[in-house]
Amino acid sequence: MYPFKYQKAATVRGAVSLLGKAEDPKLLAGGHTLIPTMKQRLASPKTLIDLSGAGLSGIEQKGRNIVIGAMTTHAEVAASPVVQQAIPALARLAAHIGDPHVRHRGTIGGSVANNDPAADYPAALMALGATVHTSKRKIPAEEFFAGMFATALDEDEVITKIAFPVPGKAAYVKFPNPASRYAIVGVFVAKKGSQVKVAVTGAGSGGVFRHTAMEEALAKRFNPKSLEGVATPAADLNGDIHASADYRAHLVGVIAKRAVAAAMA
Amino acid sequence: MTVTALGAAVRRKEDHRFITGKGQYTDDINRPGQAQAYFLRSPHAHATIKGIDLSRAKGMPGVVAIYTGDDVAADKVGGLICGWMIHSKDGTPMRAGPHPILAQGKVRYVGDHVAVVIAETLSQAKDAAEAIVVDYGVLPANADTSKAQGAPEVHSEAPNNTVYDWHIGDKAATEAAFKAAKHVTTLEIVNNRLVPNAMEPRAAVGEYDAGNDALTLYTTSQNPHVARLVLSAFIGIAPEHKLRVIAPDVGGGFGSKIFIYAEETVCVWAARKCGRPVKWTADRTEEFLCVAHGRDHVTHAELATDAEGKITGLRVKTIANMGAYLSTFASSVPTYLYATLLSGQYAIPNIYAEVDAVYTNTAPVDAYRGAGRPEATFVVERLVEAAAREIGMDPAAFRRRNFVTKFPHQTPVIMMYDCGDYKASLVKAMEMADVKGFGKRRREAAKRGKLRGLGYSTYIEACGIAPSQAVGSLGAGVGLWESAEVRVNPVGTVEVLTGSHSHGQGHETTFAQLVSSRLGISIDNVSIVHGDTDKVQFGMGTYGSRSGAVGMSAISKALDKIEAKAKKVASHVLEAAEADIDFKDGKFTVKGTDKSVDFGTVALNAYIAHKFNPQELEPGLKEGSFYDPTNFTFPAGCHICEIEVDQETGVATIAKWTAVDDFGNVINPMIVEGQVHGGIAQGVGQALLEGAIYNKDGQLVTASFMDYTMPRADDLPSFDVGMTVTPCPSNPLGIKGCGEAGAIAAPAAVINALTDALGTEEVPMPATPQALWTVIQKQSRAAIAAE
Fold first, then answer.
1. Is the confidence at residue B1, as pLDDT, over 60?
2. pLDDT tens-digit readout, B276-303
3. Which of A124, A243, B465, B594 is 20 to 30 Å from B773 by CA-CA measure?
């Protein structure tokens, strides 16, 4: 690890101000990706701005939305009665991120801002049609994720909270990488009224994506059988030693069916 | 006073220290004035070093010294050695390239040691290492075992990258057996490369005492005396009496800490050179890149059977990857620790094996839990299972028809099996596994869309390594006896100094149980001292499941001497003839009387020496022993794996695991069961999860736990563990050894279950979900084509 300056923001406004002033800053929102990368000397920000004191934790139901503060940990989301009652699929997703250490330090805002192509949360945001609230604006999930490790966030922009509309039915099924346990394929399926959204993480070379062919098939009839014969082209998918693009394409179909079945259960 | 008997499942004495964080591992040791070492490693798999520019790095903050291969050469520090000479078919000695502790002119694998930076802090050492400019001339590299012969030359000393082409067995007789065979089963087998990954990475602290001109090396070693011998006699660091090697608490070894590596050697050499204690602890990436890896065989294997289902011959051609340098015992692993076990549990009249050991641009490969015997068991048990299926016999019945049933049994490949009852362990395992009910379970699984299979592994291994004369005749550079010294204190407490080394095995408990049961004292009054060359006179260390069979036998012999002398002392205390003294349950009794004295009183009398004439009997109570075994020991057993494959995803889930092992007499069944569990976990890891993968440029793709799949608790079922016992006749305690059995037995059981489930013999290791899905896809394409 190279030396860096540590600063703790007391408010969102303070964090934004520090972002503008500090030399080569990075926000610290849990650090379970950033700190290991820094330890390996693969990342070397000059300043870390810690958001843990900026008052961004908390979960509340606001009308038909579940609103989760950006610094809320995965463990808090998993254990939240509000989330468990309104969007149990989201609570279960959070309960299966990483390991207990990660779940007690890692935050939803950190995960979403990092947009790891194998992270779980991006699939939830996309399928549930969530809105990312920032220090500047509100960004629909659809516009927020901008490819592998890339987002619509500006340099001086801080995520404050994420609002999830409560779906009628939803489920997330993950096929984990046997080594890292990140998603090789993760499919989040959500049905709200007549609209069905299917978001796939882990598989796409551009990060999380919506599977529109599946959505159309499921909108006609919300049943795993509807997905038979719905193709997932391997061309845009990742391939690595654990799963080729072809295998991932096949798994997207299998895991999507299982997600639909779980949503119906 | 509570005596702990042999066979008692007492809790481990050492665990309180470990689980409360009070263990003292090498990284816990810090010496006054200590500096930190960091190794600059090659990013290339194969390159010449055209120049190293240290000018900027040497001026960096905190830098104490930077050394390269030139300094090593100038100091005439010898290279690392391989301690087992293997001869090729034509009688020529193996062709080994030099193995300098810092690269000289060339690097041969990613991670090869180019320079060491010693600085006040690790961070400063890393900063300086980044400022070193190395001019590499990158050469084409090869990491592929099967392509090594013909690939770019790794060492000019080894033409065609071949270290040796060795063979064993009767070629002509085996060829004749195959010609006459009714049926021949052929398999192409890849035994996947593994990274040991002990929980504690390797570490070292070297320290120089200028006043005494003596060096101390604290290190993560399974055999500190062997390390001292090699460092002193071959590498020339210091004479043995001026070099102390201490292996304190060591957090797992699995073979990987047997070897004498570059980093530890550099630390102790550099400590004198720079005048500061030098510490190095591997980070996990260094551990992946530079620890000696395991396995990595490519094998063509054949089994000949006659019309009655009797095995008439076995023939094997193996290419074994040695990596870029020959590690300490690398040459012995694919030869005498492998091919000598190719008879398995079977009476096979004709065996012929050829083994080519090859250099590649990868980390050195050496012994890893089982060392050669997992590879042999995998070949034999895969062949046997496949042969049974091909000739339409039940795999268990086929095994029973071919088991060795009369002992001693001389195999065609050196080993003389001393005892065993292979049918007993098979029958017991089949009952425990409810093999009869398998058909029903398979049908039930099919209804759930799962393919269920059952696989056997009736393994044998050679442990209790080993009779010194025998291994000497096969090329070993050392004897493989063990030493023990039993020191009885005046109050009757006991210290045992052993040449064995515990790095997870529980010697502090099991060895104390032996003393407790023999002397009738509590295990709390016994200390086991190991891992320090200044305390223990000499020892060969712990590996090859040898510490029970060999290490404890040495203690047992020393206890015989203690008992004999104590009887003499007791005869004076009790004023009776020595021949009339009985010793039982910690008491010396005069035969036919109620006159007795306890062990502690006798110990005190041995030291105060008031009651006997020093001309007749020396004071004190301390005895030593060197025990050299008369034979290997042959643990054997039967493991049965039941597995389910999800046809849609290729995920394999172990549904049921039954292990019935014959380890001879057992000292502590709880510890033995733990060893079985751990061994199976590692074996399942090899079969389903683990695989070290280098890409075509020789980069290690699986260099972290993000990509290298270590087994986790949820990858494993609960194990049903049972035992059968045929006491080993080759050592005084009847022990065979248990440390490696699980890792040896498990891979074949898993793959045999998978091949049963999938109906094809072509299942690779590790059988990852992707690999199994690929097999299933291939089968369904073949089925469609056939329609």
1. no
2. 999 999 999 999 999 999 999 999 999 9
3. A124
Q: Which runs of consecutive H residues, i.e. helices, occur in A145-265?
A: 212-220, 245-264
Look up the CATH number of domain A5-50. Answer: 3.30.43.10
The kind and range of the H/E element at B126 are helix B122-130
Q: Which residues contact B772 (CB under 8 A, 6 or more apart)?
A: B645, B650, B651, B652, B754, B758, B763
| Chain B residues touching residue A37 (CB < 8 angstroms) | none
Query: Which CATH number do you get for residue B100?
Result: 3.90.1170.50
Is B43 part of the contact surface with chain A (CB cutoff 8 Å)? Answer: no
Q: Could B770 and A244 be called an inter-chain contact, meaning their C-beta atoms sit closer than 8 Å?
A: yes
Q: Is the CATH number 3.90.79.10 carried by domain A169-264?
A: no
* Pick among 3.40.50.1760, 3.40.50.1000, 3.30.465.10, 3.40.630.30: CATH of A59-165: 3.30.465.10
Domain, as residue range, for B644? 370-465+631-786
Q: Across the strands, what pairs with B522?
A: none
More confident residue, B3 or B113: B113
Q: CA-to-CA distance for B352 and B300, rounded, in angstroms?
A: 12
**Among positive and negative, which fits the CA dihedral A71, A77, A82, A85?**
positive
Chain A partners within 8 Å of B701 (Cβ):
241
pLDDT digits (tens, 9 = 90+) for A39-84: 999 999 999 999 999 999 999 999 999 999 999 999 999 999 999 9
What's the confidence (pLDDT) of residue B2?
82
A180 and B707: CB-CB below 8 Å? Answer: yes
CA pair distance A111, A92, nearest whole angstrom: 16
Distance of alpha carbon B765 from alpha carbon B688, whole angstroms: 7
Q: Are residues B68 and B39 in the same domain?
A: yes
Q: Which residues on chain A are in Cβ contact (under 8 Å) with B768?
A: 178, 242
| Mutation for B interface: A242, A252, A257, A258, most B CBs within 10 A | A242
Q: Do residue B493 and residue B447 come from a single domain?
A: no
| Domain finish residue from B577, B601, B627 | B627
How many residues in total does chain B contain?
787
pLDDT tens profile B228-280: 999 999 999 999 999 999 999 999 999 999 999 999 999 999 999 999 999 99
In this prediction, residues B638-656 reach a mean pLDDT of: 98
Amino acid, single-letter form, for residue A173:
V
Closest residue in B to A242 (Cα–Cα): B770
pLDDT surpasses 70 at A201: yes
Mean pLDDT along residues B660-687: 98
B713 touches chain A (CB under 8 A): no
Supply φ then ψ for residue B448, to 5 degrees.
-90, 10
Whether B383 and B268 share a structural domain: no
What digits encode the pLDDT tens for the residues B154-165?
A: 999 999 999 999
> Chain A within 8 Å of B764 (Cβ-Cβ)?
no
Check B705 against A179: CB less than 8 A apart: yes
CA angle B163, B471, B742 (to 5 degrees): 85
Which of the four pLDDT bands, split at 50, 70 and 90, describes residue B786?
confident
Q: What is the pTM of this model?
A: 0.97
The domains of chain A are located at: 5-50, 59-165, 169-264
Pick the residue of B194, B289, B707 with the most A CBs within 10 A to test the interface with A by mutation: B707
Q: Name the residue of chain A whose CA is nearest to B127's CA.
A: A2
Of B689, B708, B770, the CB nearest to A247: B770
Which tens digits make up the pLDDT trace of B714-761?
999 999 999 999 999 999 999 999 999 999 999 999 999 999 999 999
B691: in domain: yes
Average of per-residue pLDDT across B344-360: 98
| Cross-chain Cβ contact B769/A178 below 8 Å | yes
- Provide, as residue numbers in chain A, all residues whose Cβ is less than 8 Å from the Cβ of B773: 247, 250
Interface A-B: count of C-beta contacts within 8 A: 36
